Amino acid sequence: MTVKTGSGAGPAVGSGGDELLPATRRSLLHRVAVGQRDGRTPSLVGAVVRDGAMVWCGSRSMIEGHAPDADTQYRIGSITKSFVAVLVMRLRDEGLLDLTDPLSRHLPETAEATAETAAGGAAAGADPGGSGLDAAGLRAAGRLTVGQLLSHTSGLASETPAPWWERTPGSLRPELADVLGADPVKHPAGRRYHYSNPGFALLGALVEQVRGVPWGEALRTEILEPLGMTRTTLLPQAPAAGGFAVHPWADVMRPEAVQDTGRMAPAGQLWSTAGDLACWAAFLMTGREGVLSAATLEEMRQPASPPEAADMDSGYGLGLQLSRRGGRLLVGHGGSMPGFLATVWVSVEDGVGAVVLANATSGPQVGAVAADLLAITADAEPGLPVAWRPADTLGAELLELTGPWFWGTSSYLLRVDAEGLPRLAPLTGQGRATRFHVEHDGTWTGREGYYAGETLRVVRGADGRISHLDLGSFVFTREPYDPSAPVPGGFPGWH
Question: Which of 36, 345, 406, 474 has its CA 20 to 30 A from that of 323?
Answer without folding.
Answer: 36
